[in-house]
Specification:
The structure is a single chain. Helices cover 55% and strands 13% of the residues. It has 591 residues and is α/β, with parallel strands linked by helices. A seven-stranded mixed barrel has the order 4-5-9-8-7-6-10. It has a five-stranded mixed sheet with strand order 1-2-12-3-11, with helices on both faces. Helix 9 links the parallel strand 7 and strand 8. Helix 16 (419-429) packs across helix 21 and helix 17 (434-445) packs across helix 21 (520-565). The longest helix has 46 residues, at 520-565. The protein is globular. The relative contact order is 0.19.
Length: 591
């Protein structure tokens, strides 16, 4: 039961989108990173691991502590001694936290919420807000800290892709794209808005498709053409677009389908005229819904990206380009003269651009399907669905940080890994390699030490247990119900998946003669034993990939952003499960 509960909490911490790390604060006390886990995470990022002698000594101490811990658990003591010990432990924990709170206030000189941590190193100050992502208290803590600290930069536990997906429609519409993220497009022969009689070279900025980066560095050029009988690009295009840039209007079909239709005609690229006044702040064609993507794949018989770059043009420039392609000057400059119109069409407009490098995460449909299946089989997808059904707001503290930072003219940046790297690390961590097996063993041996740190948090750490209690106290009843149902559903699904593996192993043992076929009890006991071994191995590995390795990645993001911006005061907003891992790295290695 305890392992299943831990598995549910780790499943919550592993959720990769809005449900990511719903309860990492609850998972951390159960499976905080042992020395081997931390070393493995740092090695994966290219940092030197802990010294061999130090690791061996700590492992030996953990082994001795585990033996003592198990011996004490097995002692048969009278009930009054057990209850008296629990009361004494609770009193000691309370008194420790009273001292802990006063020591934390003295260390930074600022009155901060109890859920915050502080580190000063390398001439910089780091204020870390530890949150539970479904807590109504979390956004209030974030706003209070940013307002009091007045940092040079705020950082949040998201990557660019998840931040875009988190935002609602209104928030997305209010954002303006950054000029450095837009694609420059040179148009040769486009008429000027101020002087429609004169053609000139114009360079405009367009939003790019998420798959354009697949052909980064290539130069695309050609005449711009517009098919009057196919204005939206919803039908396959003809030879008129061969070797040219196809101009279409937005709407009618997804951007990817427009690209495939233009590819059938041999076009070099697709230019889409936006229907809105302002360009979107995010890449086009990045929809995550599987339904539309599956329809496109069925229609095109292709699960990959279109091989054609797509650019979304500002509406005003796009309309002028369209008029030029039609051979009529904007504003009626040729007085409707058909000869002039024909000449204008013959002259045409040429477009040219060099595709920019793009680090924005992108994944083909095949990878989306694999990740969706993983979400479902691990129970995370079901968990997220339950949370959505109850309309529980997830990750509100991140946008509270953005809003508060914007009101103070402070940049707010992302420091987390993207989902492709996340899934890659998770896949690598569950492979039963010797290193991973050693990591799981050392993690369980470290459990007594971690329990002590959870009950009596060291000075300078975030009190994860106390912070979780404070956040949980702010949950409305709806959140408690959703959390209970979601945790039960996720645990049930993940347990059934593990039983499938144990059933296959049990059948192999039965055919090998290790288990008598007629003994149902022996077969059931073997299945339970195999499931238990799988859980003992997998849970520390999941924690390493979901929490420990991301701690290292986010720490590096903090260091990079702080140095690039020469920030002296930084506020970082992360889940409570990541708080102490980041603080420890900043304290020992600087930032």
């Amino acid at each position: 039961l305890g392992l299943n509960s831990a598995g549910s909490l780790l499943a919550l911490a592993a959720a990769p989108s809005s449900a990511m790390a719903l309860a990492p604060a609850l998972a951390e006390p159960l499976l905080s990173p042992a020395p081997a886990a931390a070393a493995a995470a740092e090695d994966a990022e290219g940092e030197p691991a802990e010294g061999g002698l130090s690791s061996a000594l700590r492992l030996a101490c953990d082994a001795v502590a585990t033996v003592v811990f198990l011996y004490l658990l097995g002692l048969d003591v009278p009930d009054y001694v057990a209850y008296g010990g629990q009361v004494a432990l609770l009193l000691a924990m309370t008194l420790w936290r009273v001292w802990f709170r006063r020591a934390a206030a003295d260390s930074c000189g600022i009155e901060l919420p109890y859920t915050c941590g502080f580190v000063e190193a390398s001439g910089r100050k780091l204020f870390l807000v530890a949150t539970v992502h479904i807590s109504p208290k979390a956004p209030l803590d974030v706003q209070a800290v940013i307002a009091v600290v007045q940092p040079d930069v705020a950082m949040i536990e998201l990557d660019e892709e998840r931040r875009d997906r988190f935002r609602d429609v209104d928030s997305q519409a209010a954002r303006k794209p950054k000029e450095e993220e837009l694609q420059p497009l040179r148009l040769i022969g486009l008429t000027s808005a101020s002087d429609p009689e004169e053609a000139q070279d114009t360079t405009l900025l367009a939003q790019r498709a998420v798959w354009n980066g697949e052909r980064a560095g290539e130069t695309i050029s050609g005449s711009v053409v517009f098919e009057e009988n196919n204005p939206l690009g919803t039908d396959p295009m003809g030879k008129e677009v061969l070797g040219k840039l196809a101009l279409v209007r937005r709407g009618g079909s997804p951007f990817a389908l427009k690209a495939y239709n233009a590819l059938l005609g041999g076009a070099e690229a697709v230019l889409v005229i936006d229907s809105e006044t302002d360009l979107p702040a995010y890449r086009i064609g990045m929809g995550s819904a599987l339904g539309p993507n599956l329809k496109i794949a069925w229609h095109t018989r292709n699960c990959g990206f279109p091989r054609l770059p797509v650019l979304l043009l500002p509406r005003s420039e796009g309309e002028r380009l369209l008029e030029r392609c039609r051979g009529t000057l904007a504003g009626g400059g040729n007085g409707g003269d058909s000869a002039a119109a024909t000449a204008g069409a013959a002259e045409g407009v040429r477009g040219e651009f060099q595709i920019l490098e793009d680090s924005y995460p992108r994944r083909m449909l095949s990878r989306q399907l694999c990740q969706s299946c993983a979400l479902l089989l691990t129970g995370i997808g079901i968990l997220y669905g339950v949370i959505q059904c109850f309309a529980v707001e997830v990750g509100a503290e991140f946008f509270a940080a953005e809003e508060q930072a914007a009101s103070q003219n402070i940049p707010c940046t992302c420091i987390d890994v993207d989902m492709d790297r996340f899934w890659g690390r998770l896949a690598a961590s569950v492979l039963p390699t010797p290193r991973n097996l050693l990591n799981s063993l050392s993690s369980w041996l470290a459990l007594p030490r971690i329990l002590v740190q959870m009950l009596f948090p060291p000075r300078g750490n975030v009190d994860v247990l106390g912070s979780t209690v404070l956040h949980a106290a702010s949950f409305p009843l709806r959140t408690w119900i959703a959390f209970a149902i979601a945790g039960f559903a996720a645990s049930t699904v993940s347990s059934k998946v593990l039983l499938l593996f144990s059933y296959a192993s049990e059948q192999g043992a039965e055919r090998a003669g290790a288990v008598a076929p007629e003994s149902a009890q022996d077969r059931a006991d073997l299945q339970v034993l195999i499931t238990l071994l799988l859980e003992l191995y997998l849970f520390p590995q999941v924690y390493t990939s979901v929490v420990a390795s991301r701690d290292e990645a986010m720490y590096r993001g903090i260091v990079r952003q702080s140095r690039e911006r020469d920030a002296k005061k930084v506020v970082v907003v992360v889940g409570a499960g990541h708080a102490n891992g980041i603080l420890q790295r900043a304290r020992t290695r600087g930032f």
